[in-house]
Amino acid sequence: MNSLRTSQYNLRRREQRARESLDERFQRRSARNAADRLRRARARSDQQMANRVNSQAETNVSEHDCGMMTEICNFCQALYWRNELNSSNKYTKCCHDGKVRLPNLAETPDLLKEFLTNNSLEARNYQNHIREYNAALAFASMVAEVKSPPANGPYCFRIHGHIYHRIAPLYSNERFKPGYGQLYIFDASEANSRRLENNPSCLSSVMEKLDALLRTINPYAKSYLQMHQLIQSNPTVNVKMIFMEHLDLDMRRYNAPTSRTEVAAIFVGDDGEPPANRDICIYPIGEGCKNISPLNQCNDPMVYPLLFPRGEQGWSNEMEHVEERRSAKRNRVTQLQFYAYRLSVRSGFSLLHSSGKLFQQYVVDAYVKTEGSRLNYIRLNQKDLRVEFYRGLLDALTTRASNNNLRVGKLVILPSSFQGSPRSMQQNYQDAMAMVRKFGRPDLFVTFTCNPSWPEILNAMQGRERPENRPDIVVRV
């Protein structure tokens, strides 16, 4: 019915236009054009009004700013932003609510502070090649598969796989060139020439100054030189040097030491018992390098002499919580708590946070050691983790191995409580799908990218620090 009416209306309209004169047709078209112009003008006016309202609304939105790091922990004096309060209105990421109390790092030597804060040729070279300087002057090596990000951007220290720390005997042999702690028994000029052969981008003047500094204040350099002098004076006696994990052990377990520095004891003779598994033992001659346990407190100062030039000790499993704040369940400082305390920002100059690329390496090394300790705990405590619930999986593997005439090894179950494990990822996925089943599909997927030029990040930088070298600040902002 409606289509019939429409066709009849169009027919009458065509007949009417056919009968109208030229003047009538001109007036009709002029009125139509005027109406179109008025309609377009009104549409433009409405659009301009809407844009004006939107611009006013955008300018009224204040930019979010975390402000300055003005909040201070009452226990360890760590600096925080106000929004970093936890659910209990406390700052606990630094010292675990006062349970962790570590000795302060020694004052930074003037030479290192000058290299990290000045803009001279030597200072710029030191800042750009600080990892090479540290590796050349280290007492132990760090072995890892370093894989740079596949793009052109700021420097980023990234590894693949595991990290190994290795130490060499006192004297090198024909197969290996002298390196690391072996160079501290040489004359300073000869040692620096050998270091510069492997690090051509380093400056000779900077290397000489750093070598002289470490020979003066570093206890490990003194220990190596003292052992060398003792061997030269007693060439027929067996000598070994032990960097012990616990310096207060009963020395009657071994032969009485003839010499002892701040960090090591030098023993003469081979009648004593061998040191503990985690102690570092340096022999005069050996076959290649030996691995250092990541649980040894000498690990960090021997690998990073430019971060701990005075030989400050690292984490030890004997560190305990503050007595008045410890709990009945746990009373020892974990690796995570130790490094969280060390990486916390406090007022004053920090050699650790100002070391640029070397600080990135130290953070990655600390994370890998902490994660390795967690994996080792899971490996040694399978019964406590109730892995008998995976009995069906064990039976399936045993059956498959017997059918293929294979030997079943020791199976280690990685539970979902370990972040980043396949079971953890699967559990998170199932939780997300449960929310979708309950509330429906999500409407928005919101993400944003961090800008290193945010004022909170720039205000937290000190001296010549750059945002890419302070991942601790970036991730907190």
TrEMBL record:
<protein>
    <recommendedName>
        <fullName>Helitron helicase-like domain-containing protein</fullName>
    </recommendedName>
</protein>
<feature type="region of interest" description="Disordered">
    <location>
        <begin position="1"/>
        <end position="60"/>
    </location>
</feature>
<dbReference type="Pfam" id="PF14214">
    <property type="entry name" value="Helitron_like_N"/>
</dbReference>
<feature type="domain" description="Helitron helicase-like">
    <location>
        <begin position="338"/>
        <end position="477"/>
    </location>
</feature>
<feature type="compositionally biased region" description="Polar residues">
    <location>
        <begin position="46"/>
        <end position="60"/>
    </location>
</feature>
<feature type="compositionally biased region" description="Polar residues">
    <location>
        <begin position="1"/>
        <end position="10"/>
    </location>
</feature>
<dbReference type="InterPro" id="IPR025476">
    <property type="entry name" value="Helitron_helicase-like"/>
</dbReference>
<feature type="compositionally biased region" description="Basic and acidic residues">
    <location>
        <begin position="17"/>
        <end position="27"/>
    </location>
</feature>
